[in-house]
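The instructor's notes for this session suggest beginning with a concrete chain rather than abstract definitions. Hand out the sequence below and ask the class to guess, before any prediction is shown, which regions might be ordered.
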Amino acid sequence: MGEKRIEIVTESMFYTLMAFIAGDCSGVEAATFTEQITGGRVHLGAATIYTILGRFEAEGVIREIRREGRRRVYTLTDKGRNMYEKERSRMEACLVDAKKADKRS
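After discussion, reveal the predicted structure:
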């Protein structure tokens, strides 16, 4: 049985995509970016970040552009950019709906 395709973008996945929107990086750099941008609210441990990177690479969301010893640097593909933009738009629509709901209460 094959790998399940990415249908749902989790919070951890979204922040990982955001790290790659900011620029090419390694897993450690993506995890550090996430902690910094969220003020420590989101922590991506080694198992989480490397699982995400493995899935993203298998799905063509990112691709490796170089190796520096054990450090692997990735770049976002067009598919990855589209995934990020689609998820960002979905979340923005959710916030608009939440504001409408707040006004009704």
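Then share the key points. Helices lie at 11-22, 27-37, 46-59, 78-104. The radius of gyration is 15 Å.
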